[in-house]
Design a protein that fits this description.
This protein is of the alpha/beta class and 364 residues long. It is 35% helix and 23% strand. The protein is globular. It comes from Carnobacterium sp. (strain St2).
Length: 364
């Protein structure tokens, strides 16, 4: 049993708060338990001298810890006049990890610097930094895409990092905190892409050697944790887009039609063009979650969709709701037409259920 009561294959509570600071193009506060790191991504319209004229961009990283991020105060490295070997190693690791999943040619001749500042340390600061740094970098690149400065997304795939280890009792554990890390017989950091490919492994037998079987066990534990981290990253990025939309000014020249039907969108585009309005649809905002239709009438559901989406996106919204009401079935399925046969939505299943319920009725 771990001292923190977690299961051996259990991550600490991991959260990624996006848009943490207002100035950077990408900003997050990432927390792995009591380890907390602010990751900011800054876009600059120039590259380092050694990259000039190559038509490529660059991704750089810096890493630092607040003096009282740990149990006792440490002297700021700026006061010492030089970076420690540990700091240089970690910031180089973060930078090359991020560059491994970026198409630098698609980024163009611009540089993105990701600053990772540890405000509280309880083990795993480098793995937390990389996991949060990727989200901040992705947000900064999305800003470039949204503004039209980039036409292609240079991000190839997600990356994340996590620690694993072997306790003195010989048990493999995931995501070590400081106490576990300081007493572990073996500790290892895993850095992996969302496609399941490792781009770096760092393992050390602190007080013991480890077998091939133990190595495989640690790798499997790490993969499990990393796949959970990818889900957390993806959700954080979705919420970031929604937050930006909420904070955006109201668009008075644009109306959103609450539909994913391209044909219906074209009809409304022709209609509203005469009024000087631009038309968008739900296809333009795939990150917006589907509105739960809890109304008991078509009108209630249409209003619910319009008000919910308008509050999220700060724009005018036109929504409707429709369905099939069968007199012989006392008005069923009505507002439940889309999910008459249950989840997931299926027209074929809905039709089959409807025909089954009408089988005992004589033809008109």
């Amino acid at each position: 049993m771990r001292t923190n009561t977690r299961k051996n294959d259990e991550l600490r509570l991991v959260t990624i708060e996006t848009n943490y600071l207002k100035h950077p193009e990408g900003s997050v506060l990432v927390s792995f338990g009591d380890t907390k790191v602010i990751c900011n991504a800054t876009v600059e319209p120039k590259v380092p001298p050694f990259m000039r004229g190559q038509g490529k961009g660059w991704v750089h990283a810096e890493y630092a810890m607040l003096p009282r991020a740990t149990n006792t105060r440490t002297i700021r490295e700026a006061a010492k006049g030089k970076l420690t070997g540990r700091t240089m190693e970690i910031q180089r690791l973060i930078a090359r990890s991020l560059r491994s999943v970026i198409d630098l040619e698609k980024l163009g001749e611009r540089a993105i610097t990701v600053d990772c500042d540890v405000i509280q340390a309880d083990g795993g600061t480098r793995t937390a930094s990389i996991t949060g740094a990727f989200v901040a970098l992705k947000m900064a690149i999305q800003t470039l895409l949204d503004s039209g400065q980039l036409t292609e997304d240079p991000v190839k795939e997600n990356i994340a990092a996590v620690s694993v280890g072997i306790t003195k009792q010989g048990e493999a554990v995931l995501d070590l905190d400081y106490l576990e890390d300081s007493s572990a017989a073996v500790d290892m950091n895993l850095f992996m892409t969302a496609n399941g490919e490792f781009f770096e492994l760092q393992g050390t037998g602190e007080e013991a050697t480890f077998s091939n079987d133990q190595l495989m066990e640690m790798l499997e534990l790490g993969k499990k944790g990393l796949n959970e981290l990818f889900q957390i990253q993806t959700q954080a990025l979705k919420e970031s887009k929604v937050k930006k939309a909420i904070q955006a000014p109201v668009m008075t020249d644009t109306i959103l039609i609450a539909t994913k039907n391209p044909g219906k969108a074209r009809e409304f585009e022709a209609l509203f063009a005469k009024k000087g309005l631009f038309v968008k649809t739900l296809l333009d905002y795939p990150e917006i979650p589907e509105v739960e239709e809890t109304g008991t009438t078509f009108a209630e559901n249409a209003l619910l969709k319009a008000e919910t989406i308008a509050a999220t996106l700060n724009m005018m919204v036109l929504a409707d709701d429709s369905g099939l009401k069968v007199d012989a079935l006392e008005g069923r399925p009505g507002v439940y037409s889309a999910r008459y046969a249950g989840e997931p939505k299926s027209d074929a299943a809905n039709n089959a259920k409807l025909l089954h319920e009408l089988a005992d009725f004589p033809p008109a």
